[in-house]
Amino acid sequence: MKKINKTKNPFLIFLPFLVLYIVYVVICHTNGGYGDESRYLIYSRYMIDGHLPYTNLDFDHLGNGPGYSILLMPFTYFHLPIIVIHLLNALLYYFSVILVFKNSITFISFKRAISLSIFWACYANSFNYMGKILPEIFSSFLICLLMFSVINAFTTEKPQKYIYLSGFVFGFLALTKPVFGYVMLCMLIFSFIFWVLKRDIKVRRMTLLILIIALATTTPYLVHSYKETGRFFYWSSLGGNNLYWATEPDEFEYGSWFPAPGMPVDPATEQTHLPNFKEQVRAKHAKDFEEINKYKGTAQDDAYKRMAIKNISEHPAKFLQNCMSNIGRLLFNFPYSYKIQSPYTLLRLPLNGIIVVFALICLIPTLKNWKKIIFPIRFMILLALIYLGGSILGSAETRMFTLVVPIILIWIAFVLQHCVRINLGKWGDEL
Questions:
Q1: Do 154 and 374 meet the contact criterion of CB atoms below 8 Å apart?
Q2: Cα–Cα distance for residue pair 413/381, rounded to 1 Å
Q3: Does residue 290 sit in helix, strand or coil?
Q4: 3 state SS of 273
Q5: Is the per-residue pLDDT at 60 higher than 80?
Q6: In the predicted model, is pLDDT for residue 38 greater than 90?
Q7: What pLDDT is stored for residue 3 in this prediction?
Q8: In whole angstroms, what is the distance from residue 326 CA to residue 344 CA?
Q9: In the predicted model, is pLDDT for residue 316 greater than 80?
């Protein structure tokens, strides 16, 4: 039996971070009523009773996929205390740190893999969701697990189990975050075209198989959504709402999302925005919502999209400006419409600023050495690019960027290790 080197066992190395996360959760957890927390809990209870969202009279739209609520089902079934779900976040994030290490150690040095994993372990933006019953931490874990399975699928001699695992995890990610369903479809179309053009390449066949398995994983839910809406590949009916706010043409609004006029506003939003922001939003969008509120469910989603298309066609320059604001919110949580400035924004500048600087450094070497980059990383880069590109066109927030930070870190680490040579010697040594 091979002796385990405990000094290099990632479960032991990163164990102090698990303790840190548990302490943080105990101190900072919510009571289950923050933002969309109650919706995920209610969805899980409905599924225990044999109902999927939208089949119950309390809902008239497909608010989100069932992925995260499926994870919550054991906790709601046994009526466990809310804090147990928060502690699950701590455990999942700890596992995501270990997966980042395992993903990177295959192609960079041990010390660099440790440094990269510690950066993710201390990534402050993730802490915003660790004490909340929201799918962000679970989605980050799924991203890291997907990367682990994809890397192994294309680097091991017996990849079958990793191919199936990759497909299942990608599919479950789409069920958790509907936007990844559309990412999956885009990648499936690209993969099929490349496979048709060059069928003899094994990598393309494996990629296509992973994406087909991912689609198969989502099929039961897609069948359900088709029965309820009559539409194919319909993961959520909230896309139009998101797009509407991203296209708002008002000079003093920057594409950030708001609850529709008349909807209850989360207390956290009340505290961080200007005192009269609800009245201003209501006044500026009253005419639009008078029309939108004539409809329910998918018809309302269509009404949002009609308004969004109208805004883009009449104010294309403002839409581009909102897209630039989306990039700012993705990276630095700024700017938001009607929001009070907070010193916490300054903490995001160096954090994501470091990632942006290194990403820019790695951009040209990546383009020049694209075929030298191992295929699993190219697969994940494409996934992240499609996802971020789609997010920029909607109403974006920092939490959306946080999900793919592990992919970006792994990409940067690989390029710096294999495609970039940095000389820190004294100037003039070569003279």
A1: yes
A2: 13
A3: helix
A4: strand
A5: no
A6: no
A7: 42
A8: 18
A9: yes
